[in-house]
Design brief:
26 helices; alpha/beta; GIY-YIG endonuclease; seven-stranded parallel β-sheet; six-stranded mixed β-sheet; 7 domains
Length: about 800
């Protein structure tokens, strides 16, 4: 009987594919193992075995697999079940979830190899110049890679040339699958067996009298072995013996030294110092912890609302400790990579080398190592800290999931698919593993707080700062009035300058928050009003003075700063608005003695950039830190006593139903960075509208007032948490085709859902990377079946794709859009 396997491929197609396997392979293969399979004309993909069976496909003849890549499953069955939930709920394919979850090193790529055809014996003169160059290269080398062919003929697109050579039967093509992951091997050395006794060693040193450098290396090795029982690396020996690799190599060749290799992880969190005892909790933390444990016993997801600096992390540490004592794994999710830097240091003190970190700044090799350590439940991966992608790791024995700063929109994946929300997907993951789930925030999202109020989630709170430190004193400064009275210096009010001067004179630190990077968002001609626009997007170019560039923050297009207006030729150009770069320059002029640092997307591109900026500020090497919302989340700086918000209105006037909620969260969070130890902090919020309701609520810390107001508005206009929403985006390069397609889809939806469909409407930036965008919004009552709704939408999409004109229009689903 023939054997077959169903395979998940990392491509955005709804269905799985069936391949033939031999009886031996069928016995070996199980769900979650990787296989290389041919797909299409010549491509080879890494597929994931979904099931092994004996049912041949009805529509097509099953191809044979290329090769088996694993001895044991790479993906666990429970993980696959979670992936299926993500694919179903967020309306994407299992292949897209697979591509997002697996480190790219596991998705082996096929590479086309160009081989000489031994049967070709036609006239070489019939070949064109570029064809002959490839033919000649194959005379000296039996195989060429496509990129080598590209270098030989000095052209990026080699396909037309290779096609001509194939037609003339000069070459053959072959697909080769190659592994991307290479383990890190560390070279160690030791004295060869024959020289370990004192007599033999003395004899050896006498024989090396004419080779002083080699003698020096042997003595250095002997000394290192005496001082430490650890194995000696080649690098250590090189330094100790003040020598070179060549000298060590010659000793190895003579058989005096033996070298051996040990596989090591690229990232290790191991502290040489003794572990600190876990701090005992104060009464407020203890009450919260007892409440959390009580909810966990009732198998409830629990929300911990603790004001900024109330010591939520210490509560998490207690929960982690009891989870590790049960021999289970902990997942700690954070919205920003910047937060992992501080947290690792704190947790290392308590848990030593039991910590693994996983986020996008890690390279492919490092991700594979963390994946393998988590899968095999190694002690160095008992606690996994990471951004949203860490939730997709292969946990075996998950006992606790902590989602810190759960309100953050960074937990939502926007592009590419799957467009999942890590908080919600992690709650489902906890359900699959029967693990406890804790959400923590000083300013919970309205959805989570609503779930806590209605009893769906458990609830605990801490209303006092650790050490009974008072919440910072908030002051709203009317910059409209300050401008009128000419009391502004650049973008600083007199009041903010006074406070900065006083703070610096007392040896304390300042944080300045402006949620826009670059120097200025607009460069404008004062004569004709022309503003340079991005050629690929419907947005003005942002002025970056440091790089002397105008940049698009959507597609990355950049151009040199023009000396004159491109429209009228005038030399009078000026900037409008301001970003972090401009604030940095102004601060340096106003406070030349102060050490200033900036933390935004431009300064944190490097792998260790976050760490350097945060560590320098923590160790008080920097006096003033200027940043975007990166600096607002959960960072703990002991010596910051002043926070300045440069312009609160930029947050408040945004066309989105969550604007007021987000403004409250962001301003409360950034204010929480001030005065976290003994002295009460100060927060200055500059605004043109000091009487705005949200600013009043922020200054009085009235979360409940904000929640009640926002919840009422959302009830009136049918937005979450009262309703569910699905946002559908249409994307196409042709403006007219997009309009027609979006209208067709919208009418079909309105026939199904009536007045609960809003749109189609162009967003504020209607063209990105030369693709036009149009949005539709579907509002669903919580009582309606979301499964049935999605089924209806998918049915409409099938009819939509049947229209040949609309087939090229891309339809993107964003479930629970935020």
């Amino acid at each position: 009987m023939a054997n077959f396997i169903n395979v998940i491929l990392p491509i955005p197609l709804e269905r799985h594919f069936t391949y033939g396997v031999s009886p031996e392979e069928a016995k070996l293969l199980t769900t979650g193992m990787r296989v290389a399979v041919p797909f299409g004309r010549s491509k080879i993909y890494t597929g994931l075995v979904e099931s092994v069976h004996t049912m041949p496909p009805e529509v097509y003849e099953a191809k044979e697999i290329h090769e088996v890549l694993d001895d044991s499953p790479t993906v666990k069955p429970i993980q696959l079940e979670h992936w299926r939930w993500i694919a179903d709920y967020y309306m994407c394919t299992l292949g897209e979830v697979m591509r997002s979850a697996l480190p790219s090193a596991f998705l082996l790529e096929s590479e086309t190899l160009v081989l000489r055809n031994p049967d070709f014996d036609a006239d070489e003169l019939s070949l064109k110049d570029d064809e002959f160059l490839i033919f000649e290269a194959l005379q000296h080398q039996s195989i060429l890679k496509v990129q080598e062919v590209s270098a030989i003929i000095d052209r990026k697109n080699t396909l037309p040339v290779l096609q001509r050579l194939l037609e003339k039967k000069v070459i053959r093509l072959k697909e080769e699958v190659y592994e991307q992951y290479k383990p890190k091997l560390v070279r160690y050395v030791k004295l060869a067996q024959g020289y370990t006794s004192n007599d033999k060693l003395e004899e050896l040193l006498n024989s090396l009298t004419r080779a002083p450098k080699q003698s020096q290396v042997v003595l250095a090795l002997f000394q290192l072995v005496g001082n430490s029982k650890k194995p000696i690396t080649v690098t250590d020996l090189e330094l100790a013996g003040n020598s070179s690799k060549a000298v060590i190599k010659s000793l190895v060749e003579k058989g005096i030294l033996e070298e051996y290799f040990v596989q090591k992880d690229r990232v290790n969190y191991e502290s040489d110092e003794e572990l600190s005892a876990i701090k005992s909790l104060n009464e407020h933390q203890q009450i919260a912890l007892d409440k959390i444990l009580q909810n966990f016993e009732n198998e409830k997801v629990t929300l911990l609302k603790g004001i900024t600096s109330s010591g939520k992390t210490e509560v998490y540490v207690k929960l982690m400790e009891s989870c590790l004592n049960e021999g289970k794994q902990v997942l700690y999710l954070l919205p920003e990579i910047a937060l992992t830097t501080q947290l690792i240091t704190r947790l290392e003190d308590y848990f030593g080398g039991k910590i693994a970190v996983y986020h996008s700044k890690y390279n492919v090799q490092e991700r594979v190592e963390v994946w393998n350590n988590v899968a095999s439940e190694k002690s160095k991966a008992q606690i996994v800290i990471g951004a949203r992608s860490a939730m997709l790791l292969p946990f075996n024995n998950l006992g606790l999931i902590i989602i810190d700063e759960e309100h953050e929109s960074s937990f939502k994946q926007f592009d590419p698919a799957p467009r999942y929300h890590a908080r919600d997907a992690a709650i489902v993951l906890g359900h699959f593993h029967k693990a406890n789930v804790l959400l923590g925030s000083a300013t919970p999202s309205i959805e989570s707080f609503h779930n806590a109020q209605t009893g769906k989630y458990g609830y605990a709170e801490i209303n006092r700062r650790y050490g009974n430190v008072l919440l910072p004193d908030m002051e709203l400064v009317d910059i409209k009035e300050a401008h009128r009275k000419r009391r502004m210096k650049g973008h600083f009010s007199e009041r903010l300058l006074e406070e900065i001067t006083e703070t610096l004179s007392e040896g304390e630190q300042v944080i300045l928050f402006q949620n826009r990077r670059g120097y200025a968002p607009i460069l404008e001609c004062l004569t004709c009003g022309h503003t340079p626009q991005c050629p690929n997007c419907d947005v003005s170019l942002t002025y970056h003075q440091y790089r002397k560039q105008l940049r698009c923050h959507y597609c990355g297009h950049h151009t040199a700063i023009p000396e004159s207006c491109q429209a009228c030729g005038s030399l009078e150009l000026d900037t409008k608005g301001f970003g972090t770069e401009q604030i940095e320059l102004e601060v340096k002029e106003l406070f030349p003695e102060a050490k200033v640092a900036r933390m935004d997307l431009d300064t944190t591109r490097g792998k260790h950039a976050y760490e350097k900026i945060i560590t320098a500020f923590e160790q008080e090497e920097t006096d003033i830190l200027i940043g975007t919302q990166m600096i607002t989340k959960g960072l703990d700086f002991r010596n910051v006593s002043l926070v300045g918000v440069m312009n609160a209105d930029a947050l408040l006037n945004f066309p989105d139903y969550r604007t007021h909620e987000r403004s409250f969260q962001l301003l409360t969070q950034v204010a929480g960075r001030a005065g976290r130890t003994k002295k009460r902090g100060k927060v200055i919020i500059q605004t043109y509208n000091p009487y705005h309701q949200i600013l009043k609520q922020v200054s009085t810390g009235d979360y409940n007032g904000m929640y009640a107001e926002q919840h009422y508005d959302r009830e009136q206009y049918k937005y979450p948490p009262v309703n569910r929403i699905i946002k559908i985006t249409f994307k196409h390069k042709n403006y007219n085709v997009l309009n027609e397609a979006a209208d067709w889809f919208c009418n079909a939806l309105k026939n199904n859902f009536g007045g609960n469909v809003l749109g189609p409407e162009y967003p504020s930036v209607a063209r990105i990377r030369n693709q036009y965008l149009k949005h539709l919004l579907i509002k669903m009552d919580k009582k309606e079946s979301i499964v049935q709704t999605k089924r209806n939408i998918k049915r409409i999409e099938k009819s939509f794709n049947a229209v040949s004109l609309y087939r090229s229009v891309r339809v993107i689903y964003n479930v629970d859009h935020i």
